[in-house]
């Protein structure tokens, strides 16, 4: 007995966790600075922590009321109908729900390269075919409707990421409008705004009244600091919003996650702290790192260091965990998440030392 042919599938490669690295190095995880997974260095909102503690004794009950409450609160936030909010286990779950709702076996999906691996993974899970459009380093990973459309060939879904992971580039409102207007009638444009709170541009959610071929996925993992609870959502046009009931995994967003997300949505101070720190940190990286970096709208920067794997390994040995981006097709780079101000300054100091030493070793005697 064997599973179906998975030879074209790929495994997701996450950033290494602090506990995992600490075991390898024989050190205390508290002595490490983890900047590899774009997590919120301030943790979850204190209000969310209280909600988690309060919800713990009720986890014997299915999350019907909390799911409804969170759906209503998100809808209120964006001025949507409740049916337009598809609560999911992380933004990944929203991507899966859209794949379920739109893909027939053999349908093609257009994804960015480099880009988030899960777009392709979800496509293949649902028996679709993957095509790609390039984001060129020589063009500073610029994202435009023209660039996407140059590779477009009638695919059923087109994935766009703004801010983009791992490069940090963003897509303007005008470019999204052009893309939605120029693709074929059967094509859905999915805008991934997992890092949307960190960007200064308005959300594409505001375009849903105008376009019925647009969907937006968002998450509570990043700016809200709830990555461990896996809760996100897709925002969709009202015209086909009722498809959710037919593709939703029963009770996929759990009770604790829903209650924590509800509390986090009302803690504006924590969100402001998280966003402000990230915006400060990404500018600090760009100004202080002795390596080329790209402008970023997220809570991370991509920097070119020569040998990304060697730099990431050397940084780990010195207590800073950064993301080697070879899995994104960028082996010459590392991605560095925004830490607290203290963590960011410490990371820059160590990164600069490591990059200098790596360059010296590469150039030889």
TrEMBL record:
<dbReference type="GO" id="GO:0000105">
    <property type="term" value="P:L-histidine biosynthetic process"/>
</dbReference>
<feature type="modified residue" description="N6-(pyridoxal phosphate)lysine">
    <location>
        <position position="222"/>
    </location>
</feature>
<dbReference type="InterPro" id="IPR015424">
    <property type="entry name" value="PyrdxlP-dep_Trfase"/>
</dbReference>
<keyword id="KW-0028">Amino-acid biosynthesis</keyword>
<dbReference type="InterPro" id="IPR004839">
    <property type="entry name" value="Aminotransferase_I/II_large"/>
</dbReference>
<protein>
    <recommendedName>
        <fullName>Histidinol-phosphate aminotransferase</fullName>
        <ecNumber>2.6.1.9</ecNumber>
    </recommendedName>
</protein>
<dbReference type="Pfam" id="PF00155">
    <property type="entry name" value="Aminotran_1_2"/>
</dbReference>
<dbReference type="InterPro" id="IPR050106">
    <property type="entry name" value="HistidinolP_aminotransfase"/>
</dbReference>
<dbReference type="InterPro" id="IPR005861">
    <property type="entry name" value="HisP_aminotrans"/>
</dbReference>
<dbReference type="InterPro" id="IPR001917">
    <property type="entry name" value="Aminotrans_II_pyridoxalP_BS"/>
</dbReference>
<dbReference type="InterPro" id="IPR015421">
    <property type="entry name" value="PyrdxlP-dep_Trfase_major"/>
</dbReference>
<keyword id="KW-0663">Pyridoxal phosphate</keyword>
<comment type="pathway">
    <text>Amino-acid biosynthesis; L-histidine biosynthesis; L-histidine from 5-phospho-alpha-D-ribose 1-diphosphate: step 7/9.</text>
</comment>
<dbReference type="InterPro" id="IPR015422">
    <property type="entry name" value="PyrdxlP-dep_Trfase_small"/>
</dbReference>
<comment type="similarity">
    <text>Belongs to the class-II pyridoxal-phosphate-dependent aminotransferase family. Histidinol-phosphate aminotransferase subfamily.</text>
</comment>
<feature type="domain" description="Aminotransferase class I/classII large">
    <location>
        <begin position="31"/>
        <end position="350"/>
    </location>
</feature>
<keyword id="KW-0368">Histidine biosynthesis</keyword>
<keyword id="KW-0808">Transferase</keyword>
<dbReference type="GO" id="GO:0030170">
    <property type="term" value="F:pyridoxal phosphate binding"/>
</dbReference>
<keyword id="KW-0032">Aminotransferase</keyword>
<dbReference type="GO" id="GO:0004400">
    <property type="term" value="F:histidinol-phosphate transaminase activity"/>
</dbReference>
């Amino acid at each position: 007995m064997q599973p179906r042919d998975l030879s074209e599938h790929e495994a997701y490669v996450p950033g290494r966790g602090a506990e995992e690295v600490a075991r390898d190095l024989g050190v205390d995880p508290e002595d490490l600075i983890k900047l590899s997974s774009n997590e919120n260095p301030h943790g979850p909102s204190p209000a969310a922590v209280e909600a988690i503690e309060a919800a713990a004794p009720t986890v014997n009950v299915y999350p019907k009321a909390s799911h409804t409450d969170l759906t209503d609160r998100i809808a209120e936030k964006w001025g949507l109908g409740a049916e337009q909010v598809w609560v999911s286990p992380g933004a990944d779950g929203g991507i899966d729900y859209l794949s379920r709702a739109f893909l027939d076996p053999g349908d093609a999906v257009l994804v960015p390269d480099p880009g988030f691996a899960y777009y392709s993974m979800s496509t293949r899970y649902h028996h679709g075919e993957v095509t790609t459009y390039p984001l060129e380093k020589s063009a500073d990973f610029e994202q435009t409707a023209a660039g996407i459309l140059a590779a477009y060939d009638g695919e059923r879904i087109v994935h766009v990421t703004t801010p983009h992971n791992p490069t940090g580039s963003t897509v303007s409102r005008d470019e999204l409008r052009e893309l939605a207007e120029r693709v074929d009638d059967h094509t859905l444009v999915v805008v991934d705004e997992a890092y949307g709170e960190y960007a200064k541009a308005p959300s594409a959610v505001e375009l849903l009244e105008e376009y019925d071929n647009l969907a937006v996925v968002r998450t509570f993992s990043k700016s809200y600091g709830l990555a461990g609870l896996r809760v996100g959502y897709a925002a969709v046009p009202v015209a086909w919003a009722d498809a959710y009931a037919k593709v939703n995994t029963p009770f996929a967003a759990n009770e604790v996650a829903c209650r924590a997300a509800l509390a986090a949505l009302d803690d504006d101070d924590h969100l402001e702290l998280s966003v402000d720190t990230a915006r400060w940190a990404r500018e600090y990286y760009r100004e202080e790192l002795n390596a080329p970096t790209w402008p970023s709208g997220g809570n991370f920067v991509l920097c070119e260091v020569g040998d990304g794997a060697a730099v990431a390994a050397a940084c780990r040995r010195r207590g800073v965990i950064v993301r080697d981006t070879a899995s994104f097709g960028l082996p010459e780079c590392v991605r560095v998440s925004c830490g607290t101000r203290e963590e960011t300054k410490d990371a820059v100091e160590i990164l600069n030392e490591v990059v200098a030493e790596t360059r010296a070793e590469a150039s030889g005697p």
